[in-house]
Write a structure and sequence with these properties.
about 70 residues; mainly alpha; 5 helices
C-alpha cells in the first residue's frame, strides 16, 4: 500500500478500525488507491456518520422529547 495512503488511513482512527475489521479492503486499496473514497463511504455507512444518519438521529431525539413532554401533561 502506498505510504501516503497509509498515512491518510492512520490519521483517521475510525478508518483504521474499519480496515482492521474488513481486511478485504487492503487488497483493493493496494491494487487501486482510488478506492479510498469508496472505503470511506463504507466506513461512514457502518458507523452511521452519513448526513442522513445524523438527521435520522436528530428526528428520533425530537420524537423522544415530544413523547416525553406529552406524557408530562
Amino acid at each position: 500500500m502506498e505510504l501516503e495512503l497509509q498515512k491518510q488511513i492512520l490519521l483517521k482512527p475510525k478508518l483504521y478500525e474499519h480496515l482492521k475489521q474488513n481486511s478485504e479492503w487492503i487488497k483493493l486499496l493496494n491494487r487501486n488507491p482510488n478506492f479510498l473514497k469508496d472505503f470511506e463511504e463504507k466506513m461512514k455507512e457502518q458507523y452511521k456518520e452519513r448526513t442522513t444518519d445524523k438527521m435520522d438521529e436528530v428526528l428520533d431525539n425530537i420524537d423522544l422529547i415530544t413523547t416525553f413532554l406529552n406524557a408530562m401533561k
